[in-house]
Input
Amino acid sequence: MPKHPLVSRRRALLLGLGTLASMGTLGMGRSKYLSYQIEALDDPKRDFTAVGEASLKERAAAKGLIYGAAMRYPALLSDAKLANCFVRECGILVPEWGLKWYVPGVPLRPNPDKFDFTEADWMAQFAKTNSLLYRGHTLVWHESLPPWFKDTVNSQNAEQVLVKHIKTVAGRYAGKMHSWDVVNEAIATYEKRQDNLRKTPWLELLGPNYIDTAFRVAAETDPKALLVYNDFGLEYDTPEDEAKRTAVLKLLERLKSKGTPVQALGIQAHLLGGETRFNSKKLREFFSNVASMGLKILITELDVTDKNLPKNTAVRDRIVAASLEDYLAVALDEPAVIAVLTWGLSDRVTWLSDFQSRSDGAAVRPLPMDADLKPKLAWNAIARALDSAPKR
Ligand code: 9MR
Output
């Protein structure tokens, strides 16, 4: 790998972004500097050996943990090789689309009074047939709302529309769900509200208590499922992520103090390949603060975007793997963490090819298996982290 003659790997890691300006004055542009910094993340000598033949599911189970992934119904239905691979590697399935209110082509709630469980039922059956746990995502979110929502839902009927949704959807799978993401992504610190809540239609229609209502109704409807608050942007030592971690802790404290039945935090963990501001001490503290509230923790949507990483596949895979192993080493050290799910299993099917594609046109490689369903270094990294995790 070409290295800038003036910036050794170690030195580049130590240089903060604050030095950018001075680097600029020395004649190195920002983007060039960043790419040196990213390349410096690569350690060609790092060992990603995973011992033995066991699947990720088996390695997790050996530690009292659960490993699984999100999947789309069309992919699982039509791609037998992918389905086999899923069953071999995973102990839990979460539909990437099928339990959202409305994804184009997958309308769970096509109109206010109609529910279509075609996909979600098929996925539930697939899970049952293959002895997988089943996980629900998500009952309340500001995205993937149906086209009818805007013109139909108002402050008079919003609570009734929400309660009906939770009772119908969570009710259908009651007793069969491992866990539900009851509320997803309710925090946005940039909105500058005191309570840090995101300005969503739910907040506007029902006020901050929509979160409590959702958890209360979910608990009544499916007392067996673990009830999760799920969010992203909690990983790095950046002012944004720091603010988000603080806001999440505050929200969870508020919910707990009111007796709202939140039982776990879902940390999405969409990692950024190339992000150097990883601080294991701060992350550890965050996990431990959540655990000290008596909450479980799930890593719910793990993947690594390689959008800004070098094109060279070997380099890219090493940086992705290192991000995964470094992150999971911290996460799995916290005994309150009970599960790890990746957001997809194979690079064959990933949201990142649509949402974070590479400018050089190379296919993205964010997940444990490559597009041919062969395990990559990312798989090894997860396997190693599971193997090193303390037993629950
Ligand atoms: O991966 C999902 C993508 O295919 C959908 O188009 C999108 C909207 O429904 O949601 C994506 O999944 C998101 C998840 O539901 C919540 N966290 C962020 C995920 C990636 O955007």
